[in-house]
Amino acid sequence: MIKTITVLLCSIFAGNYLYAQQVLTLQEVVKFALENKAEAKKSRLELENAQYQIDEVRAGALPQITGAGTLTYNPMLQQSALPGELLGRPGETIMVAFGQKWQSNATLTVNQKIFDQSLFTGLKAARTTKEFYVINNQLTEEQLIEKVANAYYEVFQSTLQLQTIQNNLDNTTKTHKVISGLVEAGLAKKIDLDRISVNINNLEAQKQQVINSNQLRENALKFAIGMDISQDIELPKETFDVNSKILQTESNLSNRTEVLLLQKQTELLDLNKKSIVAGYYPSLSFTGNLGYLGMGDTFPIFSSNSGVQWAGFSGLGLNLSIPIFNGGATKSRVNQANIQIRQLQVDMEDTKLGLNLAHENAKSQIKNSLLTINSNRLNVNLAKEVLDNTENNYRNGLATLTELLDAETAYAEAQNNLNTSLLNYKVAEVQLIKSNGNLKSLVSE
After folding, report:
1. 17 pairs with which residues across the strands?
2. Tens digits of residue pLDDT in 7-42
3. What are all long-range contacts of 364-372, with beta carbons under 8 Å and residues at least 24 apart?
4. What does CATH list as the number for 26-36+116-281+325-444?
5. DSSP 8-state code for residue 87
6. pLDDT tens digits, 186-224
7. Which terminal CB of the chain, N or C, has fewer other CB atoms within 10 Å?
8. CA 41, CA 35: separation in Å to the nearest integer?
């Protein structure tokens, strides 16, 4: 299997730095994409963020400690009415102000959950969520590998097409020189020379069209791997390799990332259901506080004035919450969670059918491509023999120029058909490798 791509990095960086030429295999190009493409970067960030989500949920199981402080100034203290008998003044009502002008309070509070079923379920869900993002990251990488491989093969096919046109142009140019010599010797007509000149001009136009198309495909490849568009790439001159043994591989759905992802989603939905069911369970937590209260007629903070009085306080307690009746809301949420699980099971079955279909289609495409490739290779050899014989006959006056031009056109078409069938094979090969869950092999080979 051809897996090499020569990349010439020769763009100017920071004004004066020239990239040296690098020879990259397809595996290295894919690795470049996995490191630099936006999709891969975002997927890694999601995976990193999943760990932070676990930390957030885990924090709920740890003691929650808070500190608080208040400072209050009462410029006008509220007075309360007391009967005079209490103070030895019967028959009078005495107004007395309670409290102090200044009051401060510093408190340290601790809360610790002892039993909370929803918290325990949340911890399991957080770990499963990270596993989900790990699989999702694998799926993102596989999708990127598939896109890069297809883009690479399209550039390669376009390059082969350009080489075919160039070979045809070289042969036609040689024929032009031969006919030109024959015209000068009076052995050929001027119209034959004009016809071959027109054919050369048409080939030059086709060549430019393919060059433009190839440039667009090269830009698509560079974008697919996250490479600077201004950098040049150069492909090797080998041809596609074909491996018919790949048809012996069987579909393995259990290894498909899409299936693993749906299975992990099922686990998450099941944990979501358990989290809702946890609403039926009681919860128990511990609470404690410790603080100081300062009161006086002067500013109480950092004051050494004996008029400020300080008093400490503390408290310990248990909080028990027992759900009794909420109108059936919890039961309704559980039923909704069951529906989501059943819907995902339907998606799982449909996904497996689609993956099996893709596997069989890829095998059928490879079978057809192998037959087409063999036929086109024979056709290329035959067209080359016809062209060689026609060129020889034309030089000896046994064939017309029209027959020669037709032979050249037929040879070029045979080569293009072969290149197209090879591209179709490689695309189908990628799909078959994908259907077996082995796209990462394109990186590790």
Report:
1. 13
2. 332 332 333 333 444 556 677 788 888 888 998 899
3. 365/424, 365/425, 365/427, 365/428, 365/431, 366/246, 366/247, 366/425, 366/428, 366/429, 366/432, 367/247, 369/421, 369/422, 369/424, 369/425, 369/428, 370/242, 370/244, 370/425, 372/421, 372/424
4. 1.20.1600.10
5. G
6. 777 888 888 888 988 998 998 999 899 988 988 898 898
7. C
8. 7
